[in-house]
């Protein structure tokens, strides 16, 4: 679209009833103010302040999934892991609290739930994940009744699960069911098992953590988790691989597996994931009815031109986890590409880094990291041979680094 035509279209729309200023160079709309979207919005403004950036986010504040497992254990709070969007406004990002309900790619507009449309020159979508509840019979009704929770999006379910753990009798069983990979944060469930076990050890030592994993074995940092569990929680954590949940009976407090039924006091069943609803509605999903394939040099969707998809919603490149670290890096690829494209230049691919810490006790953590680079013959990002690796052992030093990592990524994305 020519600059003059774009200005005409952009000037014709309003944001949820409010008049918007005419864009100076071009308008980029970003959907989702999580790790991917917030970072992209901020960095486009930093790298080219003449670009107008509108961020549409349906929640009033950001709540971090990283560190939310410590909240479940009572070692941190929701206030510690929440941030508002004021700092993004100071970078010149227009933050609109609304939900995008549709994308019209040929017209280059998004529709807002509260009414009105927003025109864009480039659209960035980082909507995170939603769940395939249908793969678990009885799940949605049991979740509405509060008898099963996932707490895999930090917020109200995190608080509700913490309350259930506090109210559970000493001698009770907390059941954590993990879906088949790929899912958001490969080591996250094993961190959660560790932290709930640490809480039980201190507050209700006759209780058990029963991990039902659909995967055959622990999917990340397996040796380090197993070592921590046998050293710290030998009588508390029981791990069962190849244990895929297929149904939930909330009233009887039962998780049904393919061959077995398991009874618990607190049921924390994490359903299989897919790219969030908006990706599905907008035709961005390309693979297995679940994920959005992208060009890793720009994060542009392979299905819909002019739309860049970031974060957990993407079809992960080989050996790439769905993590906050990756979403933040995807955002920088997209922000750089959008700035280059809007200035009539060609984007260049660059290397990105993943680091993922997991607490195994309230103070000790373990780490995995990797570097990913563009590989032209395969047409994707691949892990750089010899880069990254895992911690030699769990330690309090890694725990301190984990807190520094969290504070740094919150600031990089939102401050
Ligand atoms: C328990 C747990 C622990 C974790 N620990 C770590 C860790 O230690 N390190 C790490 O790197 N990663 C960790 N992760 C993973 C990390 O949280 C995710 O990978 C990251 O949040 C993905 O970022 P995103 O931008 O794709 O999605 P999100 O951060 O989920 O952001 C999506 C945003 O989009 C908004 N949204 C969605 N649809 C719309 C719409 N239609 N209109 C408007 N807004 C919309 C949502 O409200 C949300 O704010 C953890 C995850 C969990 C569950």
The biggest sheet amounts to: 5 strands, parallel
Taken as a percent bin, the fraction of beta residues is 25-35%
Low-pLDDT regions: 1-23
Instruction: Give the radius of gyration.
Output: 22 Å
At the first level of CATH, the class of the largest domain is Alpha Beta
Q: What is the CA-CA span between the terminal residues?
A: 33 Å
Structure report:
- The chain has 415 residues and is an alpha/beta fold.
- It folds into two domains: 23-131 and 274-348, FAD/NAD(P)-binding domain (3-Layer(bba) Sandwich), CATH 3.50.50; 134-271, FAD/NAD(P)-binding domain, CATH 3.50.50.60.
- The chain is built from eleven helices and 27 strands.
- It is globular and about 65 Å long.
- The two termini are 33 Å apart.
- It binds flavin-adenine dinucleotide.
- Flavin-adenine dinucleotide (FAD) binds at residues 31-37, 56-59, 65-66, 68-69, 99-100, 126-128, 152, 184-185, 188, 276, 278, 311-313, 322-325, 327, 356-357.
Entry keywords:
415 residues; binds flavin-adenine dinucleotide; 2 domains; 27 strands; FAD/NAD(P)-binding domain; five-stranded parallel sheet; globular; disordered N terminus; alpha/beta; single chain
Topology:
Layout: H1 3-12, E1 14-15, E2 18-19, E3 27-31, H2 35-47, E4 52-57, E5 62-63, H3 68-73, E6 82-83, H4 86-90, E7 94-97, E8 100-104, E9 109-112, E10 117-119, E11 122-125, E12 129-131, H5 139-144, H6 156-167, E13 173-178, H7 188-203, E14 208-213, H8 222-232, E15 237-240, E16 245-249, E17 254-257, E18 261-263, E19 266-269, E20 273-275, H9 277-281, E21 294-295, E22 300-301, E23 307-309, H10 324-342, E24 352-359, E25 365-375, E26 380-383, E27 389-390, H11 396-414
Parallel strand pairs: 3-4, 3-11, 4-7, 11-23, 13-14, 13-19, 14-15
Antiparallel strand pairs: 1-2, 5-6, 8-9, 9-10, 12-20, 16-17, 17-18, 21-22, 24-25, 25-26, 25-27
């Amino acid at each position: 679209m020519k600059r003059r035509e774009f200005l005409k279209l952009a000037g014709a729309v309003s944001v949820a009833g409010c008049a918007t200023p005419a864009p100076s160079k071009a308008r980029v709309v970003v959907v989702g103010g999580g790790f991917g979207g917030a970072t992209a919005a901020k960095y486009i403004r930093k790298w080219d302040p003449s670009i107008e950036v509108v961020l549409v986010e349906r929640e009033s504040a950001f709540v971090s999934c990283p560190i939310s497992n410590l909240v479940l254990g009572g070692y941190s709070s929701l206030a510690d892991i929440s941030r508002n969007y004021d700092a993004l406004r100071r970078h010149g990002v227009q933050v609109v609290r609304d939900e995008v309900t549709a994308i019209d790619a040929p017209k280059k507009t998004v529709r807002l739930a509260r009414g009105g449309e927003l025109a864009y020159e480039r659209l960035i979508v980082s909507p995170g994940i939603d769940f395939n509840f249908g793969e678990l019979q009885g799940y949605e009704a049991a979740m509405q009744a509060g008898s099963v929770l996932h707490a895999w999006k930090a917020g109200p379910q995190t608080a509700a699960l913490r309350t259930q753990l506090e109210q559970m009798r000493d001698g009770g069983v907390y059941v954590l069911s993990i879906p088949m990979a790929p899912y958001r944060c490969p080591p996250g469930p094993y961190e959660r098992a560790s932290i709930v076990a640490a809480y039980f050890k201190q507050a209700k030592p006759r209780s058990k953590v029963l991990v039902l994993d659909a995967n055959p074995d622990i999917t990340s940092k397996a040796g380090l988790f197993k070592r921590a569990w046998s050293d710290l929680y030998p009588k508390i954590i029981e791990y069962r691989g190849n244990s895929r949940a297929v149904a939930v009976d909330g009233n009887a407090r039962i998780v049904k597996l393919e061959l077995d039924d398991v009874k618990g006091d607190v049921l924390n069943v994490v359903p299989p994931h897919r790219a969030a609803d908006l990706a599905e509605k907008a035709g961005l999903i390309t693979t297995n009815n679940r994920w959005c394939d992208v060009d890793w040099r720009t994060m542009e969707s392979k299905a819909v031109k002019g739309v860049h998809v970031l974060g957990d919603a993407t079809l992960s490149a080989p050996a790439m986890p769905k993590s906050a670290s990756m979403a933040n890096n995807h955002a920088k690829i997209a922000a750089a590409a959008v700035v280059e494209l809007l200035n009539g230049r060609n984007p260049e691919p660059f290397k990105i880094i993943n680091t993922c810490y997991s607490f195994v006790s309230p103070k000790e953590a373990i780490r995995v990291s990797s570097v990913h680079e563009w590989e032209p013959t395969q047409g994707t990002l691949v892990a750089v041979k010899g880069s990254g690796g895992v911690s030699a052992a769990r330690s309090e030093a890694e725990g301190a680094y984990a807190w520094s990592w969290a504070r740094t990524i919150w600031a990089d994305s939102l401050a």
